[in-house]
Amino acid sequence: MPDSDLTFQNLEELKPRAEKILSRQAFGYYASGSESESTLRDNEASFKRYRLVPRLMVDVSKVDTTVTLLGRKIACPVLVAPMAMQRLAHSDGELATSRAAAAEGIPMVQSTMGTVELAEVRRAGKAGPMMMFQLYVFKERGFVKQLVQHAEKSGYNAIVVTVDAPFLGKREADEREGFKLPDHLRLENLTGLAEAARMERKVHSKNKGSGIALHFADHIDPSLTWDFIPWLHSITRLPIFLKGVLCPEDAHMGVEAGADGIIVSNHGGRQLDYAPASLDALPGIAAAVGKRVPVLVDGGVRRGTDIIKALAMGADVVLIGRPILWGLTLGGESGVRKVLETIKKELRLSMALMGCPSIEHLGRGMVIAPWDQYPNARL
Ligand SMILES: Cc1cc2nc3c(=O)[nH]c(=O)nc-3n(C[C@H](O)[C@H](O)[C@H](O)COP(=O)(O)O)c2cc1C
Ligand SMILES: CCCCCCC(=O)C(=O)O
């Protein structure tokens, strides 16, 4: 199918269509969560538990979806989540995602584990409002310093440190399929280093089980503590966001340690199974952060109404993960653009139906949990 012929109504339609195109290994890697996939399922289910209460008689002839993040205006409160190995989906991989996000006015977060080199990805997205670099912290701190400073020089605007992955979660699909990076692809940010050849062998290894889990156990630092944040500030001027926070106390400690933003996330249900759905964890974390820094959330965002719920419950911005990969699989750059256009349109219409001409109008009173009473309900 030519890339530009892609049509769909909503983001929920895309996964089964992408499954028909991807290899079993690639689909398994993208789609799966850890262990019983309880958290994976709950991420989407949590959004469906909450109801929205619209306000009436408000002029919504104009609806403004824009927000400001790190002093930059973005088209709507959405970021593309960091996701590894996008060339498994489409030969243009991260370049296509970067171009599409830029064209839609939406920032992308580029993964350390990209299959296109980070400076090239940044160049492809130069027309966009900004880009962030997601950092995995390797045991070799010299390499971490090199990577972060290279990202800063290449024009990234923030560092997102992933703190929920001292080891990779137990992803049974990857173990069953013996997931390996195909020989024609590389983790391009890791080449050119003394360590690279050895790391690469693990990712491509013919051993049984998941090649990426082996790589992680060898090279990612499981001894990370809060003092890493001041160290990171000492080697870069970029703002630092922490990704993977689920506990209010950790959010508070992160801000005290110097974090400039908190991302509420369970890594798309791929790390600790039975961790809470991100949306359920959000209100407590927003309260603990108390507007000191922006609070972002990801996991299961699939509809414009999901964005409204997350914002009304305390988030400043949401991140979208897997639907981007499905769009990339189905249509490359135009597939990702279509995903972002679709969610933007849904957000705009839902804001109008909620009586919210701008993002500031969204508030906690507009969302009802099953355990809340409807306003002034008489039972
Ligand atoms: C295939 C895949 C690869 C991912 N790679 C990374 C990564 O390299 N770094 C990271 O911090 N998170 C990674 N994530 C987690 C996402 O950034 C995000 O937290 C999650 O996918 C959001 O949930 P959603 O997919 O339900 O929207 C990955 C997720 C997927 C599905
Ligand atoms: C050796 C590559 C590991 C990539 C892990 C990326 C990730 O965070 C994921 O959830 O998958």
From TrEMBL:
| SUPFAM superfamilies recorded | FMN-linked oxidoreductases
Q: Which annotated residues bind FMN?
A: 82-84, 111, 134, 162, 243, 265, 298-302, 321-322
Q: Which GO terms describe its cellular component?
A: cytoplasm
Entries under InterPro entries matching the protein: Aldolase_TIM, Alpha-hydoxy_acid_DH_FMN, FMN-dep_DH, FMN_HAD, FMN_hydac_DH_AS
Recorded superkingdom: Eukaryota
* The keyword Flavoprotein belongs to this UniProt entry's keyword annotation: yes
Q: Please give the cofactor(s) recorded in the UniProt entry for this protein.
A: FMN
Active site residues of this protein: 267
Which terms does the record give in the GO molecular function aspect?
FMN binding; oxidoreductase activity
Give the signal sequence positions: none
What keywords were assigned to this record? Flavoprotein, FMN, Oxidoreductase
Query: Where along this sequence does the record place binding of glyoxylate?
Result: 29, 136, 171, 267, 270
Q: Where is the FMN hydroxy acid dehydrogenase domain?
A: 3-372
Similarity comment text for this entry: Belongs to the FMN-dependent alpha-hydroxy acid dehydrogenase family.
What name is this protein filed under?
FMN hydroxy acid dehydrogenase domain-containing protein
Question: What is the species of this protein?
Answer: Coccomyxa viridis
